[in-house]
Amino acid sequence: MKNILTIAGSDSSGGAGIQADIKTFAALGTYGMSVITAVTAQNTQGVFQVAAMSREMVKIQLDAVFSDIRVDAVKIGMVVNAEIIGQIASSLVQWGASNIVLDTVMISTSGHTLLEPKAIEVLKSELFPLATMITPNIPEAQVLVGKEITEQAGMEMAAQELYRLGAKSVLVKGGHLPGDAIDVLFDGQNLVTYSSPRINQKNTHGTGCTLSSAIAVHLALGYNLPDAVGHSKAFVTGAIKNGLDIGHGIGPVDQFFGYTRKC
Description:
Elements: E1 3-11, H1 17-27, E2 31-43, E3 46-52, H2 55-66, E4 73-76, H3 82-94, E5 100-102, H4 120-127, E6 133-134, H5 138-145, H6 152-163, E7 170-173, E8 181-186, E9 191-196, H7 207-220, H8 225-241
Parallel strand pairs: 1-2, 1-4, 4-5, 5-6
Antiparallel strand pairs: 2-3, 7-8, 8-9
Helix pairs in contact: 1-7, 2-3, 3-4, 5-6, 7-8
């Protein structure tokens, strides 16, 4: 069995963050482990408060996992601030981590800041060079490259610009644009486009976390970059189609859509 580590924030409603990552790992037949960077108070209607872990606590969690268990891939989500980013980078280098997927989480769907603005440059300089892949959505890519993205050509340009910042590959997710759901992958040589019909489903909480976690799993299983993204996009499409109508806001996707429910 492959062992996958998520480094991210905890979502008290269970829809995104650490909880979505662990569900994804389990649904895809791998063993999930977690290093928590922050605790959030949130539900389907929004994020109400964030409490970051100390840099020391993040280090101790990372050391505890890596010193005892083989880590086949790492997914990084919410990193909160520059101090935590620095510790994650230092520890991943120390322990020789591989198959690192960085989901550049910055702002929640409800508009709550999940990454301190002054930490964005540290994210680029410290974590991008360690990442096998980064997975920004359109709003995040716009912040990272400083340009508005309104069409596929802009996504392709952003992917290439972000690649030049050091990541080994970039997947720009186009779910915020109208029309079909188009994602663009750039690996330094080739641009690969993934397209699927837009799903008329409001319960999409945890989509980005689920996709990046699935990519980490497929990299650990030995898939090449284009196939890892393709299998992961198919998985998250199924999870969105079967989104759960939980709470009064945007419900979560269902990572276990492929399993027969017992109740």
